[in-house]
Amino acid sequence: MTRDVEQRGLYYEELELDTRYLHRPGRTVTEADNVLFTTLTMNTQALHLDAAWSAGQPFGQRLVNSMFTLSTLVGSSVAQLTQGTIVANLGFGEVAFPHPLHHGDTLYSETVVTGKRLSSSRPGQGVVTLAHTGRNQDGTVVATATRSVLVWCRDAHR
């Protein structure tokens, strides 16, 4: 063996403004995913659980729980962007679900770095603003969210 390579996210210095990071593979969402997430989170919304009732609603079928969509959208970015380099998730803003996600749809995620600055109160760390976008297999945007994260600078991380 010649060397070890550890998979990690990117340090503050490596995150590039106005760069779009494509997170692959996509995630095909199943009925089981939706029902499990919905019941685990105690969300008894019939729109996620009751196929017969949902058939009579405007979309004609059950919808994937939007919190599952958001969680998967953000989660798919971790390996590429923040695995082991994040200090804290600071918050979300501008979350939107412009089109429903259905059972059998595949969620493809991408992230653009829209802002970054060194922390004024935490030396060796920086605040990065990420714009996440989720699209279904047809390219239709199903979710968007902005997120602020605190990440390590390379030389400060132990």
**Class per helix and strand makeup:** alpha+beta
User: What percentage of residues falls in helices of 4 or more residues?
Assistant: 10-25%
What is the distance, rounded to the nearest whole angstrom, between the alpha carbons of the first and last residues? 24 Å
The shape is: elongated
Give the amount of beta strand, in percent.
35-45%
Mean pLDDT score: 96
CATH topology: Thiol Ester Dehydrase, Chain A
Using only CA atoms, what is the Rg? 18 Å
The biggest beta sheet is recorded as: 5 strands, antiparallel
Order of helices and strands: EHHHHHEEEE
Task: Give the spatial strand order of the biggest sheet.
Answer: 1-3-4-5-2
> How many E-type strands?
5
Any guess at the CATH architecture?
Answer: Roll
Please tally the helical runs, counting DSSP H or I stretches of 4 or more residues.
Answer: 5
Low-confidence stretches: none
What's the CATH superfamily, by name? Hotdog Thioesterase
Could you say how many structural domains there are in total? 1
CATH class call: Alpha Beta
What are its keywords?
MaoC family dehydratase, single chain, Thiol Ester Dehydrase, Chain A, HotDog_dom_sf, alpha+beta, 158 residues, MCH/BMMD
SSE map:
Elements lengths: L19 E9 L2 H10 L5 H4 L1 H5 L10 H10 L2 H4 L4 E11 L9 E13 L6 E11 L5 E12 L6
Antiparallel strand pairs: 1-3, 2-5, 3-4, 4-5
Descriptive report:
The protein is 21% helix and 35% strand. With 158 residues, the protein is an alpha+beta fold. It has one domain: Thiol Ester Dehydrase, Chain A, CATH 3.10.129.10. The protein has a five-stranded antiparallel β-sheet with strand order 1-3-4-5-2, covered by helices on one side. It is elongated, with a radius of gyration of 18 Å. The mean pLDDT is 96. Belongs to the enoyl-CoA hydratase/isomerase family. It comes from Cellulomonas fimi. Pfam families: MaoC_dehydratas (PF01575).
